[in-house]
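EI: anyone free to look at a 606-residue chain?
SC: sure, send it
EI:
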Amino acid sequence: MCGFFAVFQRAAPIPEGAAEAAIARLTHRGPDHQAVRHFSAMIEGADPFELHGALAHSRLAILDLDPRANQPFGRPAAGGLLYKGEINNSRELRQARPDRGAFTTDCDTELLYRDLLSEQGPDFAAYNGMWSYAFWDAASQCVRLGRDRYGQKPLHYYLDEDRFIVASEVRPILNYLGRSARLDDAMVAAFLRHGTAFPMSGGGIIAEPVRQLPPSHVARFDPASWTLSTERYFRPAMTVRNAEPQSLEEAFRNAVLSRLVSDRPVGLLLSGGIDSTLILSVLASEGRLDQVRCFIGDTGTSEDAAYARKCAQQLGLHATDIRLDYTEDAFGRFLAICAHMEKPFPMLGNSMALPEMYHAVSQTDVRVVLDGTGGDEVFGGYWDRYMPAFAAHAEQRGHVRWHRRTAEGDHLPQTVAALDARLRGEDPAFARRAGPYLKPQVAAAEIRDPLAHDRQPPRKTLLTDAFRGRLTDWLWQNDRNAMMFGLENRSPFLDIGLVPFIGTDYRNKFRGDWNKLELRQLFDAFTPLPTQWRQQKQGFRWQAGEFVDGNRDRLLELIAGSRIVPEFIERDRYLDDSRAGKMPPYGLTTRLACIAALEQSLPATV
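SC: here you go
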Protein backbone atom coordinates (compact mmCIF):
# COMPACT_ATOMS: atom_id res chain seq x y z
CA MET A 1 0.00 0.00 0.00
CA CYS A 2 2.91 2.31 0.73
CA GLY A 3 3.25 5.83 2.06
CA PHE A 4 4.83 8.95 0.65
CA PHE A 5 5.91 12.49 1.46
CA ALA A 6 6.83 15.33 -0.90
CA VAL A 7 7.83 18.92 -0.27
CA PHE A 8 8.31 21.80 -2.70
CA GLN A 9 9.50 25.17 -1.45
CA ARG A 10 10.89 28.40 -2.82
CA ALA A 11 12.07 30.46 0.14
CA ALA A 12 15.00 28.29 1.20
CA PRO A 13 16.54 24.88 0.57
CA ILE A 14 15.00 21.90 2.33
CA PRO A 15 16.71 21.41 5.70
CA GLU A 16 19.15 18.52 5.74
CA GLY A 17 17.52 15.32 6.91
CA ALA A 18 14.02 16.84 7.12
CA ALA A 19 12.47 14.78 4.30
CA GLU A 20 14.21 11.67 5.58
CA ALA A 21 12.73 12.25 9.05
CA ALA A 22 9.28 12.77 7.56
CA ILE A 23 9.25 9.53 5.55
CA ALA A 24 10.64 7.61 8.52
CA ARG A 25 7.32 8.34 10.24
CA LEU A 26 5.58 6.30 7.53
CA THR A 27 7.61 3.11 7.87
CA HIS A 28 4.52 1.26 9.10
CA ARG A 29 2.92 1.92 5.69
CA GLY A 30 5.88 0.69 3.72
CA PRO A 31 8.31 -1.53 5.61
CA ASP A 32 10.04 -3.01 2.53
CA HIS A 33 11.98 -0.05 1.13
CA GLN A 34 12.48 3.68 1.76
CA ALA A 35 14.14 6.26 -0.46
CA VAL A 36 14.35 10.05 -0.84
CA ARG A 37 15.18 11.97 -4.01
CA HIS A 38 16.16 15.65 -3.77
CA PHE A 39 16.08 17.93 -6.78
CA SER A 40 16.01 21.58 -7.75
CA ALA A 41 14.51 23.32 -10.78
CA MET A 42 14.60 26.85 -12.11
CA ILE A 43 10.97 27.94 -12.49
CA GLU A 44 10.54 30.21 -15.47
CA GLY A 45 8.19 33.17 -15.56
CA ALA A 46 7.99 36.88 -14.88
CA ASP A 47 10.00 36.42 -11.69
CA PRO A 48 12.13 33.25 -12.06
CA PHE A 49 13.17 31.42 -8.91
CA GLU A 50 14.76 28.16 -7.85
CA LEU A 51 12.36 25.50 -6.59
CA HIS A 52 13.70 23.02 -4.05
CA GLY A 53 12.00 19.64 -3.89
CA ALA A 54 12.17 16.27 -2.18
CA LEU A 55 10.26 13.11 -3.10
CA ALA A 56 10.18 10.39 -0.42
CA HIS A 57 8.56 6.96 -0.55
CA SER A 58 8.08 4.06 1.84
CA ARG A 59 7.16 0.89 -0.05
CA LEU A 60 4.99 -2.08 0.77
CA ALA A 61 5.89 -4.38 -2.12
CA ILE A 62 2.86 -6.24 -3.53
CA LEU A 63 3.40 -6.40 -7.30
CA ASP A 64 6.89 -6.98 -8.73
CA LEU A 65 8.99 -7.44 -5.60
CA ASP A 66 12.20 -6.60 -7.47
CA PRO A 67 14.01 -3.37 -6.48
CA ARG A 68 13.44 -2.13 -10.03
CA ALA A 69 9.88 -1.27 -8.92
CA ASN A 70 10.97 0.83 -5.93
CA GLN A 71 10.01 4.47 -5.70
CA PRO A 72 10.38 7.40 -6.28
CA PHE A 73 9.79 6.04 -9.75
CA GLY A 74 10.95 7.53 -13.04
CA ARG A 75 13.77 9.20 -14.89
CA PRO A 76 15.14 12.37 -13.25
CA ALA A 77 14.86 14.33 -16.51
CA ALA A 78 11.14 13.43 -16.82
CA GLY A 79 10.16 13.71 -13.18
CA GLY A 80 9.35 11.44 -10.29
CA LEU A 81 6.25 9.52 -9.21
CA LEU A 82 5.09 8.73 -5.68
CA TYR A 83 2.21 6.26 -5.73
CA LYS A 84 0.30 3.96 -3.42
CA GLY A 85 -2.64 1.69 -3.96
CA GLU A 86 -3.52 -0.94 -6.53
CA ILE A 87 -4.79 -0.72 -10.10
CA ASN A 88 -6.37 -4.15 -10.12
CA ASN A 89 -6.65 -4.39 -13.90
CA SER A 90 -3.17 -3.00 -14.60
CA ARG A 91 -1.95 -6.16 -16.32
CA GLU A 92 -4.89 -6.15 -18.72
CA LEU A 93 -4.34 -2.47 -19.46
CA ARG A 94 -0.66 -3.07 -20.11
CA GLN A 95 -1.42 -5.90 -22.52
CA ALA A 96 -3.75 -3.61 -24.47
CA ARG A 97 -1.08 -0.94 -24.99
CA PRO A 98 0.85 -0.83 -28.26
CA ASP A 99 4.09 -0.06 -26.37
CA ARG A 100 3.66 -2.90 -23.85
CA GLY A 101 7.01 -4.40 -24.81
CA ALA A 102 8.78 -1.28 -23.51
CA PHE A 103 7.76 -1.87 -19.88
CA THR A 104 10.70 -2.57 -17.59
CA THR A 105 8.73 -3.74 -14.52
CA ASP A 106 5.66 -5.85 -13.75
CA CYS A 107 4.07 -3.33 -11.40
CA ASP A 108 1.14 -0.97 -11.80
CA THR A 109 3.36 1.97 -10.83
CA GLU A 110 4.95 1.98 -14.27
CA LEU A 111 1.54 1.97 -15.99
CA LEU A 112 0.51 5.10 -14.10
CA TYR A 113 3.91 6.71 -14.71
CA ARG A 114 3.72 6.16 -18.47
CA ASP A 115 0.16 7.45 -18.58
CA LEU A 116 1.15 10.58 -16.67
CA LEU A 117 3.91 11.20 -19.22
CA SER A 118 1.64 10.61 -22.20
CA GLU A 119 -0.04 13.45 -24.03
CA GLN A 120 -3.53 12.18 -23.19
CA GLY A 121 -2.81 11.53 -19.51
CA PRO A 122 -4.30 8.69 -17.42
CA ASP A 123 -7.67 7.31 -18.49
CA PHE A 124 -9.18 6.97 -15.04
CA ALA A 125 -12.39 5.60 -16.52
CA ALA A 126 -10.38 2.48 -17.38
CA TYR A 127 -8.58 2.24 -14.03
CA ASN A 128 -10.21 -0.21 -11.63
CA GLY A 129 -8.86 0.00 -8.11
CA MET A 130 -7.66 2.42 -5.48
CA TRP A 131 -4.84 4.93 -5.62
CA SER A 132 -3.34 8.24 -4.66
CA TYR A 133 -0.26 9.75 -6.21
CA ALA A 134 1.96 12.82 -6.44
CA PHE A 135 3.95 13.35 -9.63
CA TRP A 136 6.64 15.96 -10.23
CA ASP A 137 6.32 16.68 -13.94
CA ALA A 138 9.72 18.10 -14.86
CA ALA A 139 8.74 18.96 -18.44
CA SER A 140 5.68 20.97 -17.43
CA GLN A 141 7.24 22.17 -14.17
CA CYS A 142 4.19 21.27 -12.09
CA VAL A 143 3.04 18.81 -9.45
CA ARG A 144 0.10 16.59 -10.35
CA LEU A 145 -2.00 14.80 -7.75
CA GLY A 146 -4.80 12.24 -7.96
CA ARG A 147 -7.04 10.15 -5.75
CA ASP A 148 -9.33 7.17 -6.42
CA ARG A 149 -13.10 7.35 -6.82
CA TYR A 150 -14.14 6.33 -3.31
CA GLY A 151 -11.12 7.86 -1.56
CA GLN A 152 -9.78 4.55 -0.28
CA LYS A 153 -6.24 5.92 -0.30
CA PRO A 154 -5.58 9.17 1.58
CA LEU A 155 -3.83 12.20 0.16
CA HIS A 156 -3.17 15.15 2.47
CA TYR A 157 -1.58 18.46 1.61
CA TYR A 158 -0.54 21.84 3.01
CA LEU A 159 0.02 25.07 1.10
CA ASP A 160 1.37 28.42 2.30
CA GLU A 161 3.30 31.30 0.73
CA ASP A 162 6.52 29.31 0.36
CA ARG A 163 5.80 25.59 0.84
CA PHE A 164 3.64 22.95 -0.76
CA ILE A 165 3.68 19.62 1.08
CA VAL A 166 1.92 16.36 0.22
CA ALA A 167 1.77 13.22 2.37
CA SER A 168 -0.15 10.02 3.09
CA GLU A 169 -0.80 11.10 6.67
CA VAL A 170 -1.21 14.32 8.62
CA ARG A 171 1.56 13.92 11.17
CA PRO A 172 4.58 14.01 8.80
CA ILE A 173 3.34 17.34 7.43
CA LEU A 174 2.99 18.85 10.90
CA ASN A 175 6.35 17.48 11.97
CA TYR A 176 8.05 18.99 8.93
CA LEU A 177 6.40 22.34 9.66
CA GLY A 178 7.26 22.12 13.34
CA ARG A 179 3.75 23.10 14.38
CA SER A 180 0.64 21.75 16.03
CA ALA A 181 -2.68 21.06 14.38
CA ARG A 182 -5.66 23.19 15.20
CA LEU A 183 -8.73 21.03 15.67
CA ASP A 184 -11.88 22.31 14.01
CA ASP A 185 -14.03 23.21 17.00
CA ALA A 186 -17.35 22.64 15.23
CA MET A 187 -16.32 19.08 14.36
CA VAL A 188 -15.13 18.44 17.92
CA ALA A 189 -18.45 19.70 19.29
CA ALA A 190 -20.44 17.55 16.86
CA PHE A 191 -18.38 14.49 17.73
CA LEU A 192 -18.85 14.96 21.49
CA ARG A 193 -22.60 15.41 21.06
CA HIS A 194 -23.31 12.72 18.45
CA GLY A 195 -20.30 10.40 18.46
CA THR A 196 -19.46 10.62 14.75
CA ALA A 197 -16.98 12.70 12.76
CA PHE A 198 -17.97 12.45 9.12
CA PRO A 199 -15.59 14.06 6.63
CA MET A 200 -16.13 17.69 5.71
CA SER A 201 -16.89 18.68 2.14
CA GLY A 202 -14.34 20.48 0.01
CA GLY A 203 -11.25 18.81 1.42
CA GLY A 204 -11.36 20.02 5.01
CA ILE A 205 -10.35 17.68 7.84
CA ILE A 206 -10.43 18.13 11.58
CA ALA A 207 -6.68 18.85 11.80
CA GLU A 208 -6.28 22.33 10.35
CA PRO A 209 -4.41 23.71 8.38
CA VAL A 210 -3.84 20.36 6.65
CA ARG A 211 -6.39 19.44 4.00
CA GLN A 212 -7.11 16.42 1.81
CA LEU A 213 -7.70 16.05 -1.89
CA PRO A 214 -11.33 14.91 -2.14
CA PRO A 215 -12.11 11.49 -3.63
CA SER A 216 -12.63 11.34 -7.42
CA HIS A 217 -10.40 14.39 -7.92
CA VAL A 218 -7.14 15.29 -9.57
CA ALA A 219 -5.15 18.44 -8.84
CA ARG A 220 -2.34 20.50 -10.35
CA PHE A 221 0.06 22.66 -8.36
CA ASP A 222 1.73 25.33 -10.50
CA PRO A 223 4.91 26.68 -8.85
CA ALA A 224 5.11 29.63 -11.27
CA SER A 225 1.82 31.06 -9.98
CA TRP A 226 2.05 29.19 -6.65
CA THR A 227 -1.55 28.02 -7.00
CA LEU A 228 -3.38 24.70 -6.66
CA SER A 229 -6.33 23.84 -8.90
CA THR A 230 -8.56 20.78 -8.57
CA GLU A 231 -10.91 18.98 -10.94
CA ARG A 232 -13.42 16.19 -10.47
CA TYR A 233 -12.98 13.32 -12.95
CA PHE A 234 -15.69 10.93 -11.74
CA ARG A 235 -19.36 11.64 -10.95
CA PRO A 236 -21.04 8.57 -9.46
CA ALA A 237 -24.59 9.83 -10.02
CA MET A 238 -23.96 10.02 -13.76
CA THR A 239 -22.43 6.55 -13.74
CA VAL A 240 -25.48 5.12 -11.98
CA ARG A 241 -27.93 6.98 -14.19
CA ASN A 242 -26.25 6.18 -17.51
CA ALA A 243 -25.01 2.66 -16.80
CA GLU A 244 -25.91 -0.09 -19.22
CA PRO A 245 -27.62 -3.13 -17.67
CA GLN A 246 -25.14 -5.92 -16.91
CA SER A 247 -24.91 -9.18 -15.05
CA LEU A 248 -24.34 -8.81 -11.32
CA GLU A 249 -22.97 -12.34 -11.28
CA GLU A 250 -20.28 -11.53 -13.83
CA ALA A 251 -19.48 -8.14 -12.34
CA PHE A 252 -18.98 -9.54 -8.86
CA ARG A 253 -16.95 -12.52 -10.06
CA ASN A 254 -14.59 -10.15 -11.87
CA ALA A 255 -14.40 -7.89 -8.82
CA VAL A 256 -13.26 -10.75 -6.59
CA LEU A 257 -10.85 -12.45 -8.99
CA SER A 258 -9.12 -9.22 -9.99
CA ARG A 259 -8.25 -8.59 -6.36
CA LEU A 260 -6.36 -11.87 -6.08
CA VAL A 261 -3.55 -10.51 -8.27
CA SER A 262 -0.57 -10.24 -5.94
CA ASP A 263 3.02 -11.39 -5.60
CA ARG A 264 2.48 -11.73 -1.85
CA PRO A 265 0.07 -14.12 -0.05
CA VAL A 266 -3.56 -13.01 0.16
CA GLY A 267 -5.90 -13.33 3.15
CA LEU A 268 -9.65 -12.95 3.70
CA LEU A 269 -11.25 -11.57 6.85
CA LEU A 270 -14.15 -14.00 7.23
CA SER A 271 -16.59 -12.16 9.47
CA GLY A 272 -19.60 -14.49 9.29
CA GLY A 273 -21.72 -11.90 7.46
CA ILE A 274 -23.12 -11.78 3.93
CA ASP A 275 -20.33 -9.75 2.35
CA SER A 276 -17.18 -11.64 3.28
CA THR A 277 -18.79 -15.06 2.87
CA LEU A 278 -20.06 -14.10 -0.60
CA ILE A 279 -16.42 -13.47 -1.52
CA LEU A 280 -15.68 -16.95 -0.19
CA SER A 281 -18.60 -18.32 -2.23
CA VAL A 282 -17.03 -16.94 -5.43
CA LEU A 283 -13.61 -18.36 -4.59
CA ALA A 284 -15.13 -21.78 -3.96
CA SER A 285 -17.08 -21.81 -7.22
CA GLU A 286 -13.98 -20.76 -9.18
CA GLY A 287 -11.71 -23.33 -7.52
CA ARG A 288 -9.54 -20.58 -6.06
CA LEU A 289 -9.74 -21.36 -2.34
CA ASP A 290 -6.08 -22.30 -2.32
CA GLN A 291 -5.20 -18.69 -3.17
CA VAL A 292 -6.43 -17.22 0.11
CA ARG A 293 -5.99 -17.81 3.82
CA CYS A 294 -9.03 -17.14 5.95
CA PHE A 295 -8.99 -15.41 9.34
CA ILE A 296 -11.93 -15.48 11.76
CA GLY A 297 -12.20 -12.98 14.60
CA ASP A 298 -13.97 -14.25 17.71
CA THR A 299 -15.03 -12.03 20.60
CA GLY A 300 -17.06 -14.80 22.20
CA THR A 301 -20.10 -12.51 22.38
CA SER A 302 -21.84 -13.02 19.02
CA GLU A 303 -22.70 -15.78 16.55
CA ASP A 304 -20.52 -14.33 13.80
CA ALA A 305 -17.49 -16.54 14.37
CA ALA A 306 -19.73 -19.63 14.52
CA TYR A 307 -21.26 -18.77 11.14
CA ALA A 308 -17.82 -18.15 9.66
CA ARG A 309 -16.63 -21.56 10.91
CA LYS A 310 -19.71 -23.26 9.42
CA CYS A 311 -18.85 -21.80 6.03
CA ALA A 312 -15.22 -22.90 6.30
CA GLN A 313 -16.19 -26.38 7.45
CA GLN A 314 -18.66 -26.83 4.59
CA LEU A 315 -15.87 -26.07 2.12
CA GLY A 316 -13.25 -28.16 3.93
CA LEU A 317 -11.23 -25.00 4.47
CA HIS A 318 -8.78 -24.40 7.30
CA ALA A 319 -9.28 -20.96 8.86
CA THR A 320 -7.16 -19.26 11.51
CA ASP A 321 -9.09 -18.20 14.60
CA ILE A 322 -8.10 -14.90 16.17
CA ARG A 323 -9.35 -14.49 19.70
CA LEU A 324 -10.17 -10.82 20.32
CA ASP A 325 -9.64 -9.93 23.95
CA TYR A 326 -10.51 -6.32 24.66
CA THR A 327 -9.30 -6.45 28.26
CA GLU A 328 -5.59 -7.16 27.70
CA ASP A 329 -3.77 -3.83 27.35
CA ALA A 330 -6.95 -2.28 25.98
CA PHE A 331 -5.89 1.21 27.04
CA GLY A 332 -2.52 0.99 25.31
CA ARG A 333 -4.14 -0.28 22.10
CA PHE A 334 -6.70 2.54 22.29
CA LEU A 335 -3.91 5.14 22.42
CA ALA A 336 -2.11 3.49 19.48
CA ILE A 337 -5.30 3.47 17.39
CA CYS A 338 -5.92 7.16 18.16
CA ALA A 339 -2.37 8.03 17.11
CA HIS A 340 -2.78 6.34 13.74
CA MET A 341 -6.36 7.46 13.14
CA GLU A 342 -5.57 11.22 13.19
CA LYS A 343 -9.26 12.04 13.72
CA PRO A 344 -11.89 11.19 16.35
CA PHE A 345 -13.79 7.98 15.74
CA PRO A 346 -16.69 6.11 17.35
CA MET A 347 -15.32 3.44 19.67
CA LEU A 348 -17.24 0.42 18.42
CA GLY A 349 -16.44 -3.24 17.97
CA ASN A 350 -15.09 -2.70 14.47
CA SER A 351 -12.80 0.18 15.37
CA MET A 352 -11.35 -1.68 18.35
CA ALA A 353 -11.33 -5.21 16.86
CA LEU A 354 -9.94 -4.69 13.36
CA PRO A 355 -6.54 -3.36 14.49
CA GLU A 356 -6.17 -6.51 16.57
CA MET A 357 -7.21 -8.62 13.57
CA TYR A 358 -4.68 -6.90 11.32
CA HIS A 359 -1.96 -7.24 13.92
CA ALA A 360 -2.53 -11.00 14.07
CA VAL A 361 -2.53 -11.26 10.26
CA SER A 362 0.72 -9.28 10.08
CA GLN A 363 2.44 -11.98 12.15
CA THR A 364 2.03 -14.31 9.14
CA ASP A 365 3.43 -13.77 5.64
CA VAL A 366 0.06 -12.48 4.33
CA ARG A 367 0.35 -8.88 3.16
CA VAL A 368 -2.91 -8.44 1.20
CA VAL A 369 -6.28 -8.76 2.93
CA LEU A 370 -9.72 -8.96 1.30
CA ASP A 371 -12.76 -7.72 3.20
CA GLY A 372 -16.42 -6.88 2.65
CA THR A 373 -16.25 -3.09 3.02
CA GLY A 374 -18.82 -1.32 0.87
CA GLY A 375 -21.37 -4.10 0.62
CA ASP A 376 -23.78 -2.31 2.96
CA GLU A 377 -23.63 1.01 1.12
CA VAL A 378 -23.81 -0.38 -2.42
CA PHE A 379 -26.44 -3.05 -1.82
CA GLY A 380 -28.48 -1.70 1.11
CA GLY A 381 -27.38 -3.17 4.39
CA TYR A 382 -28.26 -0.62 7.09
CA TRP A 383 -31.87 -0.74 8.20
CA ASP A 384 -31.48 2.22 10.53
CA ARG A 385 -29.79 4.46 7.95
CA TYR A 386 -31.84 3.67 4.87
CA MET A 387 -35.30 2.58 5.95
CA PRO A 388 -36.67 6.07 6.79
CA ALA A 389 -35.95 7.35 3.27
CA PHE A 390 -36.98 4.11 1.61
CA ALA A 391 -40.27 3.88 3.54
CA ALA A 392 -41.14 7.51 2.77
CA HIS A 393 -40.42 6.93 -0.92
CA ALA A 394 -42.54 3.76 -0.97
CA GLU A 395 -45.45 5.60 0.61
CA GLN A 396 -45.21 8.44 -1.92
CA ARG A 397 -45.07 6.03 -4.85
CA GLY A 398 -47.89 3.87 -3.57
CA HIS A 399 -45.75 0.78 -3.08
CA VAL A 400 -48.15 -0.41 -0.42
CA ARG A 401 -47.32 -4.11 -0.52
CA TRP A 402 -43.55 -3.53 -0.15
CA HIS A 403 -44.12 -0.96 2.58
CA ARG A 404 -46.36 -3.26 4.59
CA ARG A 405 -44.17 -6.36 4.22
CA THR A 406 -40.99 -4.51 5.17
CA ALA A 407 -42.28 -2.28 7.94
CA GLU A 408 -44.07 -5.21 9.57
CA GLY A 409 -41.25 -7.71 9.06
CA ASP A 410 -39.99 -9.61 12.09
CA HIS A 411 -36.47 -8.26 11.53
CA LEU A 412 -37.16 -4.55 11.80
CA PRO A 413 -36.49 -3.82 15.48
CA GLN A 414 -38.14 -0.39 15.67
CA THR A 415 -40.66 1.75 13.89
CA VAL A 416 -39.54 3.91 10.99
CA ALA A 417 -40.17 6.98 13.13
CA ALA A 418 -37.78 5.72 15.79
CA LEU A 419 -35.14 4.95 13.18
CA ASP A 420 -35.59 8.40 11.71
CA ALA A 421 -35.06 10.02 15.11
CA ARG A 422 -31.89 8.01 15.65
CA LEU A 423 -30.54 9.03 12.25
CA ARG A 424 -31.13 12.71 13.07
CA GLY A 425 -28.99 12.27 16.17
CA GLU A 426 -31.81 12.50 18.66
CA ASP A 427 -30.76 10.56 21.74
CA PRO A 428 -32.83 11.78 24.71
CA ALA A 429 -31.12 9.45 27.20
CA PHE A 430 -27.63 10.65 26.30
CA ALA A 431 -28.75 14.29 26.21
CA ARG A 432 -30.32 13.98 29.67
CA ARG A 433 -27.33 12.29 31.31
CA ALA A 434 -24.58 14.18 29.52
CA GLY A 435 -26.37 17.54 29.48
CA PRO A 436 -25.01 18.86 32.79
CA TYR A 437 -21.45 18.56 31.49
CA LEU A 438 -21.86 19.93 27.95
CA LYS A 439 -21.12 23.55 27.16
CA PRO A 440 -23.66 25.33 24.92
CA GLN A 441 -21.78 24.83 21.63
CA VAL A 442 -21.75 21.07 22.25
CA ALA A 443 -25.35 20.81 23.43
CA ALA A 444 -26.47 22.67 20.30
CA ALA A 445 -24.11 20.98 17.84
CA GLU A 446 -25.84 19.66 14.75
CA ILE A 447 -25.11 16.15 13.58
CA ARG A 448 -22.84 16.18 10.51
CA ASP A 449 -24.18 12.98 8.99
CA PRO A 450 -25.26 13.90 5.42
CA LEU A 451 -28.25 11.56 5.70
CA ALA A 452 -29.54 13.13 8.89
CA HIS A 453 -31.62 15.90 7.32
CA ASP A 454 -32.14 14.82 3.73
CA ARG A 455 -34.96 12.57 2.66
CA GLN A 456 -33.78 11.77 -0.83
CA PRO A 457 -34.94 9.03 -3.22
CA PRO A 458 -33.34 5.66 -2.36
CA ARG A 459 -30.75 5.81 -5.13
CA LYS A 460 -29.51 9.21 -3.96
CA THR A 461 -29.51 8.06 -0.34
CA LEU A 462 -27.10 5.23 -1.15
CA LEU A 463 -24.95 7.43 -3.39
CA THR A 464 -24.64 10.01 -0.63
CA ASP A 465 -23.68 7.42 1.96
CA ALA A 466 -21.17 5.76 -0.36
CA PHE A 467 -19.39 8.89 -1.56
CA ARG A 468 -19.98 11.48 1.19
CA GLY A 469 -21.23 9.61 4.21
CA ARG A 470 -20.55 6.57 6.34
CA LEU A 471 -18.47 4.68 3.78
CA THR A 472 -15.97 7.54 3.58
CA ASP A 473 -15.56 7.30 7.34
CA TRP A 474 -15.13 3.50 7.23
CA LEU A 475 -12.53 3.82 4.49
CA TRP A 476 -10.49 6.29 6.54
CA GLN A 477 -10.56 3.86 9.45
CA ASN A 478 -9.82 0.82 7.27
CA ASP A 479 -6.77 2.45 5.74
CA ARG A 480 -5.33 3.47 9.11
CA ASN A 481 -6.11 0.15 10.78
CA ALA A 482 -4.48 -1.96 8.05
CA MET A 483 -1.54 0.38 7.53
CA MET A 484 -0.72 0.31 11.24
CA PHE A 485 0.72 -3.12 10.48
CA GLY A 486 1.91 -2.77 6.89
CA LEU A 487 -1.04 -4.55 5.23
CA GLU A 488 -2.97 -3.73 2.07
CA ASN A 489 -6.73 -4.14 2.38
CA ARG A 490 -8.84 -4.65 -0.75
CA SER A 491 -12.62 -4.74 -1.09
CA PRO A 492 -14.30 -6.28 -4.15
CA PHE A 493 -17.49 -4.35 -3.33
CA LEU A 494 -15.75 -1.10 -4.27
CA ASP A 495 -15.09 -2.31 -7.82
CA ILE A 496 -16.00 0.20 -10.53
CA GLY A 497 -18.19 -2.47 -12.16
CA LEU A 498 -20.47 -2.53 -9.12
CA VAL A 499 -21.14 1.21 -8.86
CA PRO A 500 -24.20 1.00 -11.17
CA PHE A 501 -25.86 -1.41 -8.73
CA ILE A 502 -26.19 1.42 -6.21
CA GLY A 503 -29.07 2.54 -8.42
CA THR A 504 -31.04 -0.71 -8.68
CA ASP A 505 -34.59 -0.70 -7.36
CA TYR A 506 -34.65 -0.45 -3.57
CA ARG A 507 -37.34 -3.15 -3.51
CA ASN A 508 -34.59 -5.53 -4.63
CA LYS A 509 -32.40 -4.48 -1.72
CA PHE A 510 -34.89 -4.67 1.18
CA ARG A 511 -37.85 -7.01 1.17
CA GLY A 512 -39.71 -8.34 4.16
CA ASP A 513 -37.13 -9.45 6.72
CA TRP A 514 -34.22 -9.30 4.29
CA ASN A 515 -31.66 -6.64 3.53
CA LYS A 516 -29.04 -6.90 0.72
CA LEU A 517 -31.44 -9.17 -1.16
CA GLU A 518 -29.45 -8.99 -4.41
CA LEU A 519 -26.34 -10.33 -2.66
CA ARG A 520 -28.23 -13.08 -0.85
CA GLN A 521 -29.66 -14.32 -4.15
CA LEU A 522 -26.19 -14.21 -5.70
CA PHE A 523 -24.97 -17.12 -3.54
CA ASP A 524 -27.05 -19.44 -5.74
CA ALA A 525 -24.95 -18.47 -8.77
CA PHE A 526 -21.75 -19.41 -6.95
CA THR A 527 -21.78 -21.58 -3.81
CA PRO A 528 -24.67 -21.51 -1.28
CA LEU A 529 -23.35 -21.10 2.28
CA PRO A 530 -24.97 -21.07 5.74
CA THR A 531 -24.84 -17.26 5.91
CA GLN A 532 -26.98 -16.72 2.80
CA TRP A 533 -30.27 -16.29 4.64
CA ARG A 534 -28.92 -15.26 8.00
CA GLN A 535 -31.11 -12.36 9.10
CA GLN A 536 -28.73 -10.17 11.04
CA LYS A 537 -24.97 -10.03 11.37
CA GLN A 538 -24.23 -9.01 14.93
CA GLY A 539 -20.79 -7.55 14.34
CA PHE A 540 -17.89 -7.42 16.75
CA ARG A 541 -19.24 -6.73 20.20
CA TRP A 542 -17.37 -4.22 22.34
CA GLN A 543 -18.46 -3.30 25.84
CA ALA A 544 -17.80 0.38 26.50
CA GLY A 545 -18.73 -0.08 30.15
CA GLU A 546 -16.09 -2.75 30.69
CA PHE A 547 -13.46 -0.61 28.99
CA VAL A 548 -14.30 2.49 31.04
CA ASP A 549 -14.62 0.61 34.34
CA GLY A 550 -11.40 -1.32 33.77
CA ASN A 551 -9.38 1.75 32.80
CA ARG A 552 -11.15 4.50 34.71
CA ASP A 553 -8.12 6.07 36.40
CA ARG A 554 -6.06 6.20 33.20
CA LEU A 555 -8.97 7.59 31.19
CA LEU A 556 -9.65 10.31 33.73
CA GLU A 557 -5.96 11.16 33.89
CA LEU A 558 -5.89 11.48 30.09
CA ILE A 559 -8.96 13.73 30.09
CA ALA A 560 -7.68 15.80 33.02
CA GLY A 561 -4.45 16.53 31.15
CA SER A 562 -6.21 17.85 28.05
CA ARG A 563 -6.14 21.54 27.18
CA ILE A 564 -8.90 21.07 24.62
CA VAL A 565 -11.56 19.29 26.68
CA PRO A 566 -12.33 22.29 28.98
CA GLU A 567 -13.33 24.29 25.90
CA PHE A 568 -16.27 21.94 25.38
CA ILE A 569 -17.39 20.49 28.73
CA GLU A 570 -17.52 21.42 32.40
CA ARG A 571 -14.46 19.32 33.08
CA ASP A 572 -14.16 19.85 36.82
CA ARG A 573 -17.74 18.77 37.37
CA TYR A 574 -17.29 15.81 35.06
CA LEU A 575 -14.10 14.67 36.85
CA ASP A 576 -15.59 15.17 40.33
CA ASP A 577 -18.69 13.14 39.46
CA SER A 578 -16.64 10.41 37.77
CA ARG A 579 -14.33 10.03 40.76
CA ALA A 580 -17.30 10.02 43.10
CA GLY A 581 -18.94 7.18 41.17
CA LYS A 582 -21.84 9.25 39.79
CA MET A 583 -21.12 7.78 36.37
CA PRO A 584 -21.45 10.19 33.47
CA PRO A 585 -22.45 8.31 30.30
CA TYR A 586 -19.85 5.82 29.10
CA GLY A 587 -20.24 7.28 25.61
CA LEU A 588 -19.23 10.73 26.82
CA THR A 589 -16.15 9.31 28.54
CA THR A 590 -14.93 7.43 25.47
CA ARG A 591 -15.51 10.47 23.23
CA LEU A 592 -13.62 12.77 25.59
CA ALA A 593 -10.78 10.26 25.81
CA CYS A 594 -10.64 10.06 22.03
CA ILE A 595 -10.30 13.84 21.70
CA ALA A 596 -7.67 13.97 24.48
CA ALA A 597 -5.67 11.16 22.87
CA LEU A 598 -5.86 12.87 19.47
CA GLU A 599 -4.59 16.08 21.03
CA GLN A 600 -1.72 14.16 22.62
CA SER A 601 -0.69 12.32 19.46
CA LEU A 602 -0.76 15.14 16.89
CA PRO A 603 -0.31 17.41 19.09
CA ALA A 604 -3.23 19.75 18.64
CA THR A 605 -4.98 22.85 19.92
CA VAL A 606 -8.34 24.56 19.40
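EI: The chain is about 35% helix and 15% strand.
SC: 👍
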